[in-house]
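request received
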Amino acid sequence: MFRLAVKMTVARTGRLILTSLAVILGTAFLSGTFVFRDTINQTFDRLFSDVFRDVNAYVRSTTFLELDFGGEQRSATPVSVLEAVRGVEGVTSATGDIQAFARVIGKDGKPLGSEGNGPPTFGGIASSDSAGLWSVTEGRLPSGPNELLLDKATADNGDFVVEDIVRVVAVRGVREFTLVGVASYGDISSPGGATFALFDQPTASEFLLEPGFVDAILIEGDDSVSDEVLAQRIDAALPADLKLETLTGAEITAEVQGQIKDVLNIFSTFLIIFSYIALGIGSFVIYNVFSITAAQRLRENALLRAIGASRRQVSRALLIESTAMGVIGSLIGFVAGIGLSQLLSALLKATGFEVPTQGLAISSSAFINTFVAGVVVTVLAAWLPARRAGRVPPLAALRDTALDTAGNITRRVIIGLVILALGGIGLASSMRDAPIQILGLGVLGVFAGILVLGPAIARPIALTIGIPVAKLRGVSGAMARENAARNPKRTSRTAAPVLLGVALVTAFTALAASIRSEIRDTFSEAFAGDIALTVDSQGFGGIPLTITDQIARLEGVAQATGVGFTSVRISDPNDPSDSQAAAPNASQRGVFVQTINPDTIDGLFDIGVTEGDLASLGRDGIFVDAQRATDKGWKVGTRLQITRIDGVIIDAEVRGLVSGDTSFANYVASREMFADSPSPIFDAFVYIKVAQGAVVSDVQARVAAVSSDTGIGTLQSKEEFIDDQSASINQILALIYGLLGLSIIIAIVGIVITLLLSVLERRREIGLLRAVGMTRAQVRTTVRWESVITSLLGAVSGVVLGVVIGIVVVAALSDEGDIAFRLPVQETMWIVVISFILGVIAAVYPAWRATRVNIVEAIAST
Amino acid sequence: MTTLPPPTLASAHATHAAHAKGATKIYGTGDSEVHALEDVDVAFERGKFTAIMGPSGSGKSTLMHCIAGLDSLTKGSVFIGDTDLSKLSDKALTQLRREKVGFIFQAFNLIPTLSAQENILLPLTLGRNKGDQAWIDRVVDTINLRDRLDHRPSELSGGQQQRVAIARAMASRPEIIFADEPTGNLDSKTGSEVLSFMRRAVTDLGQTIVMVTHDAVAASYADRIVFLADGKIAGEMQSPTAQKVLDYLKHLGE
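response:
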């Protein structure tokens, strides 16, 4: 029987491929993201093994702060350690390494490298020692305070040649250097599209970090002993009081590779989650396809039952077919995904987020993941239809009608309403501060309830949506309306993927619109200035404090203040459960602290102080988000220990509370706290108020002169700044739209497949209609409008559901009702319009097939 | 009929491939109640070709479906050999259909994706049974289809398709074969060809066939005809000819 089932499957290859489309698409997205991730990981693996090829040992500080997204910030190492290391037996050379913020300014006065989400801009050390990471390809190494080396990609992009004067901005301000050479990093001109400005060690330390300090020390051995032994020897020679550690070359390579993977994996995990959502939505399409084909093959299955096939044999034949579909679909999908991963790279490149890819990495785990997910989803989706097929009465072989059994409507409505009600209770309680899991379960419940109810409500809704169609398109429209409603189970299953996709899109849009307008309101209240200079540096680099102070002194500027970010570790010495206090040097997660200048911020930018006076901040004061303080049991006067990146511990005091609406972090400190740190802080925003009598545009021009001089930041008017703050949500939204787009595509493919199968099923009927005088155009119209009604059925119910979920999510996310729900009217209308258009597009091929029906054959065939 | 003693179960087993006792089938309830069969007693002799005739709605198809185990009776009992079908589970019924019963339908008889040979062997394959090769060879020769075995149903004519269906029904050498208007979709020439093959299956190979038809010519190929009207046995005829049948039907209509 197995052999026969396979044969029956193979005999239907054409239809098999068609129905596999949903599997192919779903698995292609999945495999695409896997291959993309593996390729990037492999590229970085190779890159760093190559770069650290000659590094046998690596010395660095043991003090560091873990940042969000897997990054870390480590304190600096004194240059004096270099001498100690060079004296160790077995060491050939030792060189300092710095990776700090530095930005090269192009000949046109604009900074090189993209600002914002693009790759970082680095400054570092160029050294003749072979342990150094760079190799000079042109010119020579820099020496002295006025020379620099650029990476090849940056030199090419900036059109710089040796002897050119290059301006660079770093923590100490803007300086000009003479380009003396060009270098490559390993074998590639620039890793990850980042830009590099390289100096000799004393210049790099002074300009990029702090005089006399480097980030780490790279050591090459003479190969007389193993790396492990060498590392032990170096470790023994290090001054004990400096809290340093020595790693072997292999260890540091693995660590750097791991770090970059951690960062990339957050991104690819995001992609993979949405690919699984797409595959999940695809499973509805697969389920629908199997239900339809099983119904269409009712007589064949009944015949099998009549001549002695058991229920299980009939079910099994269908399961074998679904397995074949899963296997073939997943294989094709996997291959298609490889192409898709290339497309993804190109797409990211086009948006400025260039990811280096060398070759293609196709790992067995990517294959296994895709394959297993594809096959399992397909077989599971086919499970119910297969069981139903087995239950077909043998007598059906002798009857004419092939019906998709209607099932028990009353039972369906009751079960659906119960699930829906449970989901609704979950949603309602999550609006009253129930945990977020309840919200998730509530959303799931509502979705499940709607899906169960679908067949019962699809008919009236489809008929309602179809009224204008029937009015406008006459007989064809009326028939389209009846066709959409005549098999409500099928229609609802076809519309379900559209509903899910549209509901998610609508909910996200509503949430984004609400947050966006909330941000707008908050910032227009908080920002009392006229001009803002902002840099979107994602925690790495920014506006040097010297520039901020320079702007404050400009003519026509009444007031200017800078706000920046850095990370610290905060522990409560009175809390024994606070593990941070128990082990100050262990690997711990840092927290973001917003740095301000309390002398200049008053009256210019309101960070929402609810208690205390910013003037009292000083070097050892901190303001805490009110909610965070309540959670931790802190109040004004609580003593806290703050550990800076360089390991210096400050005994601090909570001197006030902030509301958290306009502060970008849970903690606020004065820039004074970090004045003596070797790891510099930057401003991310400079807020400027124009003096009375001065012309805003004049002042703006002067600030622009300073900022373009340094090539940093974007100058914005108050309106632009507020728009920009609220627009940051748009980037995330765009990404989510793009990813949910995958699901919508699959939903549309589902409509195409269903229509095609319906057209095949109604061949006789179409033939008959053509015979009595229906024109091809009328046939096309009928199919097209049926598609549109189905698509709109999903879209309209999806929008309604999405708005409900949006209202609940907004309410659940806002603590004291401080975010008001806003209906994104325009976007919602666009969603409906797009669904309409997609419905028309989905019908093109099925409608064409319908017009090709041969009248004589269709009527004669049984 | 004559003075034979009333049949015991053992003797029924010996001479009858299938029989029904008090077979009653009621569709619907209350006012819409329809008696498709009313207390029908009938038996089908082993090794004979029996036709069931009657006007539309006489219950002839229902009778066949119930005896074949495709449908269930409201009252009464049906036996294939000495097996009481009303006592069988779905699984056992499936087993019975596979081994003891063969079917020939009016149309949609074959699985379109399988070759003629595979269609013929399907009941055996479903039961993981290799079958009796010598028997199958004889069957294939009898229906004269050896050169078409590798063809798909779509590549065969209607008559050829129906011959494949006859071969499939015979492949497991069943106790009894049921045919539901087997020539209904065929022209008279191919129809008579198919009927001759069925006749030979009974005469030469000793099979038992019960055929539902309303065509007097088709019925004349049978050894015996059972007439049904309004869900009751209206009479029967041995060694019929087409003319005799037509006369009888005319008489029945009056």
